Amino acid sequence: MPKKEVPAQTTSPTEIHRPLIDAAKIKEHIQQKLQEAQPHRKIPISGQEYVGTGVVGLDELFMNGIPRGSSILTIGGPGSGKTIFCLQTLYHAAKAGERVFYITLEETPETLRKHMKDFGWDIAPLEKSGHFMIRKFTPMDITRQIDAMMERIKGELLIDIRPMVIPSDYKPDRVAIDSLSAVASALYGKEESYRIYIEQLFNIFKEIGATTFLISESNDPGVKLSSSGSEEFLADGVFIFYNLRQGNVRESAFEILKMRGSGFKKKIVPFQIKTGQGIVVYPEQEVFTLA
């Protein structure tokens, strides 16, 4: 009796076209999910080596925070949130026990106090205790400071020029200057004087160990960062506040472009300015994805 042939087994079409498993992509996906699940480490507003900003969500962009004593160039166009950010971080630092000093060349101290009160930041008790100081500079003040700096550089002035910028009996932990653009306007046509003044300011704040935020206006921070182009090289860090547009929609966004001595996330993230809170940053969101 002839032997019955058993048909050879064939691979099914589904098995032939089954895609290969990409182990690298799976590993990347798992790591991403684990990272998202991990709680963010709280960065203290006033640490020994690193400091936080006190701005909700912003500090999560850092690995350790801002190295204490750093100078931060804070850039953006009109209404982008630069001044609010500086007032907000100085307020929270003062509440945490730091001594802070806000130098204004444009707004009056009264206007700034009212502006802060709109967000629920009452600095009257902090001013009384010496933890918050606001000082208004005029173009004449800038000119006098420049003249003194030039004389000191030439060796014709031996006195310390720091009290011309900061009161001799006040040693701040945190400083904001609003703004370098106003200084540039006061010294229009005197580029060399402006450069020397800015360099001296950076040196003064570095000597006293203050964490300093220097505001600079830029209508297009994606193209031009500062007035002279030297500020971003002198600064330890660069923060950019954007006012982005997509079609007929605008959204506020923030980026850490540079920060010496600290790791940070290299991404542009959205933020909102909320009544009673100030700036709130969304570190895990992409721009134009907020509801």
For the termini, the CA-CA separation is 78 Å
Radius of gyration: 26 Å
Q: Strand portion, in percent?
A: 15-25%
List the uncertain runs: 11-18, 33-39
Reading the helices and strands in chain order gives HHEEEHEHHEHEHHEHEEEE
Fraction of residues in helices? 25-40%
- Class computed from helices, strands and strand pairing: alpha/beta
The tally of beta strands, per DSSP, is: 11
The shape is globular
The overall pLDDT, averaged over residues, is: 87
Number of helices: 9
Q: Characterize the biggest β-sheet.
A: 9 strands, mixed
What does this structure look like?
The structure is a single chain. By secondary structure, this protein is an alpha/beta fold. The protein is built from nine helices and eleven strands. The protein has a nine-stranded mixed beta sheet. It has a two-stranded antiparallel sheet with strand order 1-2. Helix 6 packs across helix 8. The N and C termini lie far apart (78 Å).
How is this fold's topology laid out?
Elements: H1 13-16, H2 23-37, E1 50-51, E2 66-67, E3 71-76, H3 82-95, E4 100-104, H4 109-117, H5 124-129, E5 132-136, H6 139-154, E6 174-178, H7 180-186, H8 191-208, E7 211-217, H9 231-234, E8 237-246, E9 249-259, E10 269-274, E11 278-281
Parallel strand pairs: 3-7, 3-8, 4-5, 4-6, 6-7
Antiparallel strand pairs: 1-2, 8-9, 9-10, 10-11
Helix pairs in contact: 6-8
